[in-house]
């Protein structure tokens, strides 16, 4: 537990939190590990965690009946996976699959939601950080919408 | 400075011809003064003048017999060194390969043709002489000089003429290019006509010019004649049809990149490209590659092009300047601002042709004036434009 | 205006500027469904053809026309001329149909070059989008030929799908080197793709180079370059250490035809490689 708290304190994503808040977050954290090709979660399932990826690579996928799994994003060391745990009705919108052996810290969504409701400071600090993650993803999505490298017609 | 009597002008022209120059000069044709071959002094447009306004050009009879009593006509001298259409090379299929044949000497060397008939530009105005110097910078003083231009330019004889009256759209005084030729000529004439006296003051600008004057009957001019010329030039300066404030022009136009005046002018501009065709400094060109029906012969032809066409900036996918707003802006800012960055001088010589020959009567001096008024409202304006003088 | 000596490493040649030299096609390599590489040798005289990475040639197809294309071969093998392009117009489509033994006209090389010399002693990061990898390849060759002179060398390459990856085999070779980092990302991929998915700019924040001293060479579609420059600056790369290669309509390649004007500069004469600090005031301007 001590070790986990240290990692959380030093991580870019949670940097700047006070000791009390860090302890609150650490109370919901667990070390996890995924083998190559292992599913972390599936579209439609209840979203009850987010992941701080420490090592490896995760593909975010969507499955099409006639096309099979299509990768829409990849995440690696230092990235944050998952925000559906934060937004009702708390269901995953995509599949997530480990591409390589991946180690991460999983943060229990239900646990955090309860703590956020009773401690709005924690809620605000987390929301600020997730807003940044969402902004980055939205920007990247918008640029990809341009289909930059395609032949213009 | 020497005096050449009007009655001896033919001898002067003959002296040029004797040195195997083909003389090009102004001559009246139909309803305009054009530039064409001059075989004798009789070809010069004696007694002709013109009235020029935005979108209007009319020849008129002057009340005297001056040979150079007109202003710049629709043509500029650029067509002789930078032809509107020029074969760059011909190609011939040879088995699986092909040959490239230079039109200049039949061999693929690009060396200058030795058989070029040298040209003499006779009666070139100061604005057009400045335009020529500008083209020298574009076509010759660069990493890859244009061989056609260079081979003709190096042999060129220039006989300049001081303007004795300003046209209605002239503003060479603002651009610092006229009305008297300052340098770059072999010989410069100033036409004086007072009562029965009709003569030319001749100034020599090069050894080549001095050599031509040998054997031509001239007499020495004195202080009085020099003053006569100065008076004439001062008079022309005062009667300029237009003026353009060139102080800090580059910085001023830089502030105007998104100005509403571009929208205003876009409503009037037809993107007809007339201004670029008559402009003595516009140098844009395109190439056309053509083959005969069998595909065995090919040609590459260079043609005048204009930044006013939609295709001008086409890269796969579309034009970079689809709107007339941006194309007019390109033309004006290139001429008055970016030219300085590219070649060290303004690209405008104040000849007024673009104003006269614009079917919509768009006036570059007026547009620049409006832009300056708009720019003056910008807090950065004063700071950036005041310290600079003429570009 | 822009006579940046870092970008001028080859002196102008004295070949006739208007006349193409005849070259013979040695090999045509199909790179992807719409891109291909031509390997050319001079058909008659074996004249030396020095070029610097980033420079371009005007390629002429008999009777069809001429287009500017960056050189994508190895500068140390200057006899063999290599061009990679995409079949998009009448001239490049005619090129796509060329076979070994066919001939093509060449004028060049023209334009500025990537500032390899200036990067000596420091890290180099190359950011390529789509066909933009082709003009950067000569820079990679030159960097690798003097590998010991540079710090880290990182290639960040983004393209549409895994099937659109240029120089696939070469990228694999480069990736297996210990002295070169290669990261590839695609806009979309099917499951099984082991690389990244996402825009190329996304690779910049985490790429292993020292932003305070690195030189960045950026080539790709203009919008991509804009975002790439922003990310590089965010990462801490100095504006004067960022270089981009621009594209405009060119008819002559030598500053005479006026077509490629970009405000005060001619892309052919002053570029196509520019120091970003020299043109940053022009970059946001529309319809310039």
Short précis:
Chain A is α+β, with helices and mostly antiparallel strands and 153 residues long.
How would you sum up this structure, described in words?
With 153 residues, chain A is of the alpha+beta class. Chain A has one domain (4-145): Jelly Rolls (Sandwich). Chain A contains 4 helices and 8 strands. Chain A has helices at residues 2-10, 19-26, 109-118, 120-145, and strands at residues 29-34, 39-41, 49-55, 57-64, 68-76, 80-81, 95-98, 102-108. Chain A has a 4-stranded antiparallel beta sheet. In chain A, strand 4 (57-64) and strand 5 form a beta hairpin. The mean pLDDT of chain A is 92. Helices cover 31% and strands 24% of the residues of chain B. In chain B, helix 8 (249-255) runs antiparallel to helix 11 (324-343), helix 8 (249-255) crosses helix 13 and helix 9 packs across helix 11 (324-343). The radius of gyration of chain C is 18 Å and the shape is globular. Chain C has helices spanning 90-96, 133-145, 168-176, 222-235, 267-270, 276-279, and strands at 21-30, 35-42, 56-61, 65-70, 81-86, 103-110, 124-129, 153-159, 181-186, 189-190, 196-197, 215-219, 242-245, 261-262, 265-266, 273-275. In chain C, strands 11-9-8-7-12-13-16 form a 7-stranded mixed beta sheet, with helices on both faces. A 6-stranded antiparallel beta sheet of chain C has the order 4-3-6-1-2-5. A two-stranded antiparallel ribbon of chain C has the order 14-15. Classes of the chains: A alpha+beta (153), B alpha+beta (391), C alpha/beta (288). Chains in contact: A-B, A-C, B-C. At the A-C interface, strand 4, strand 5 and helix 4 of A face strand 10, strand 11 and helix 4 of C.
Order of strands, widest sheet of chain C: 11-9-8-7-12-13-16
The structural class of chain C is: alpha/beta
How many strands, which pairing sense, and closed or not: the largest β-sheet of chain B?
A: 8 strands, mixed
Report the count of strand segments of chain B.
16
**Percent of residues of chain B in beta strands?**
15-25%
Molecular shape of chain C: globular
- What structural category arises from helix and sheet content of chain B? alpha+beta
- For the largest sheet of chain B, list the strands in their spatial order: 3-2-8-9-10-11-1-12
Beta-strand content estimate of chain C: 25-35%
Shape of chain B: globular
Mean pLDDT of chain B: 93
How does the major sheet of chain C shape up? Answer: 7 strands, mixed
Instruction: Bin the helical content of chain C.
Output: 10-25%
Task: State the assembly state of the protein chains.
Answer: heterotrimer
N- to C-terminal separation of chain C?
A: 18 Å
């Amino acid at each position: 537990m001590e070790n986990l708290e240290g990692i959380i304190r030093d991580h870019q994503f949670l940097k700047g939190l006070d000791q009390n808040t860090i302890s609150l977050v650490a109370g919901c954290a667990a070390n996890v590990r995924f083998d190559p090709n292992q599913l972390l979660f599936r579209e439609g399932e209840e979203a009850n965690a987010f992941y701080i990826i420490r090592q490896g690579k995760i593909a975010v996928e969507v499955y099409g009946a006639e096309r099979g799994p299509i990768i829409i994003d990849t995440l690696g060391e230092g990235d944050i996976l998952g925000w559906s745990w934060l937004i009702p009705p708390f269901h995953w919108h995509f599949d997530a699959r480990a591409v390589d052996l991946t180690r991460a810290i999983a943060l229990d969504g239900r646990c955090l939601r309860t703590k956020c409701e009773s401690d709005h400071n924690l809620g605000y600090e987390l929301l600020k950080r997730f807003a940044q993650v969402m902004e980055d993803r939205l920007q990247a999505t918008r640029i990809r919408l341009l289909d930059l490298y395609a032949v213009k017609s | 400075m020497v005096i050449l009597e009007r009655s001896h002008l033919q001898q002067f022209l003959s002296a040029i011809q004797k040195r195997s120059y083909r003389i090009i000069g102004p001559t009246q044709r139909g309803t305009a003064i054009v530039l064409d071959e001059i075989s004798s002094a009789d070809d010069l447009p004696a007694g002709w003048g013109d009235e020029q306004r935005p979108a209007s050009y009319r020849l008129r009879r002057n009340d005297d017999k001056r040979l150079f009593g007109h202003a710049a006509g629709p043509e500029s001298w650029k067509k002789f060194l930078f032809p509107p259409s020029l074969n760059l090379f011909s190609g011939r299929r040879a088995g699986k390969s092909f040959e490239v044949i230079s039109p200049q000497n039949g061999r693929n060397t690009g060396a200058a043709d030795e058989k070029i008939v040298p040209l003499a530009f006779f009666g070139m105005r100061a604005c057009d002489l400045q335009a020529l110097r500008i083209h020298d910078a574009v076509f010759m003083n660069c990493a890859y000089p244009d061989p056609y231009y260079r081979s003709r330019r190096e042999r060129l004889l220039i006989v300049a003429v001081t303007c004795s009256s300003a046209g209605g759209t002239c503003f060479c005084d603002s651009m610092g290019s006229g009305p008297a030729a300052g340098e770059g000529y072999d010989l410069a004439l100033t036409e004086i006509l007072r009562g029965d006296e009709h003569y030319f003051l001749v100034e020599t600008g090069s050894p080549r010019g001095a050599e031509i004057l040998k054997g031509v009957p001239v007499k020495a001019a004195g202080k009085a004649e020099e003053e006569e010329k100065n008076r004439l030039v001062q008079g022309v300066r005062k009667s300029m049809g237009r003026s353009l404030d060139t102080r800090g022009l580059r910085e001023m136009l830089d502030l105007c990149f998104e100005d509403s005046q571009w929208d205003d002018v876009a409503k009037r501009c037809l993107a007809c490209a007339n201004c670029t065709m008559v402009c003595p400094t516009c140098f844009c060109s395109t190439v056309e590659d053509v083959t005969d029906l069998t595909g065995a012969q090919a040609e590459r032809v260079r043609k005048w092009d204009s930044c006013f066409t939609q295709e001008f900036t086409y890269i796969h996918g579309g034009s970079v300047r689809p709107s007339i707003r941006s194309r007019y802006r390109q033309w004006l800012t290139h001429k008055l601002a970016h030219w300085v960055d590219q070649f060290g001088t303004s690209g405008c010589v104040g000849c007024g042709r673009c104003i006269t020959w614009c079917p919509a009567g768009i006036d570059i001096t007026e547009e620049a004036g409006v832009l300056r008024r708009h720019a003056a409202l910008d807090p950065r304006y004063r700071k950036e434009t005041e310290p600079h003088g003429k570009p | 205006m822009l006579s940046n000596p870092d970008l001028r490493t080859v002196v102008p040649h004295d070949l006739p500027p208007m006349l193409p030299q005849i070259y013979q096609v040695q090999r045509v390599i199909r790179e992807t469904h719409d891109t291909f590489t031509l390997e050319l040798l001079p058909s008659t005289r074996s004249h030396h053809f020095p070029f610097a990475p980033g420079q371009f040639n005007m390629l002429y197809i008999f009777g069809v026309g001429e287009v500017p294309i960056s050189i994508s071969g190895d500068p140390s093998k200057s006899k063999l001329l290599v061009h990679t392009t995409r079949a998009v117009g009448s001239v490049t489509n005619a090129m796509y149909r060329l076979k070994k033994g066919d001939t093509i006209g060449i004028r060049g090389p023209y334009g500025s070059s990537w500032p390899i010399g200036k990067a000596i002693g420091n890290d180099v990061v190359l950011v390529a989008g789509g066909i933009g990898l082709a003009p950067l390849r000569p820079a990679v060759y030159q960097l690798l030929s003097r590998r010991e002179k540079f710090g880290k060398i990182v290639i960040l390459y983004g393209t549409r799908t895994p099937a659109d990856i240029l120089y696939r085999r070469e990228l694999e070779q480069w990736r297996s080197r210990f002295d070169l980092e290669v990261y590839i990302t695609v806009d979309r991929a099917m499951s099984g793709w082991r690389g990244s998915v996402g825009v190329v700019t996304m690779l910049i924040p985490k790429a292993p180079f020292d932003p305070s001293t690195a030189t960045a060479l950026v080539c790709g579609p203009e919008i991509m370059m804009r975002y790439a420059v922003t990310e590089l600056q965010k990462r801490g790369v100095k504006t004067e250490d960022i270089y981009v290669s621009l594209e405009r309509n060119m008819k002559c390649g030598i500053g005479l035809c006026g077509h490629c004007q970009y405000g005060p500069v001619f892309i052919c004469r002053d570029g196509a490689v520019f120091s970003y600090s020299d043109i940053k005031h022009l970059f946001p301007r529309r319809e310039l």
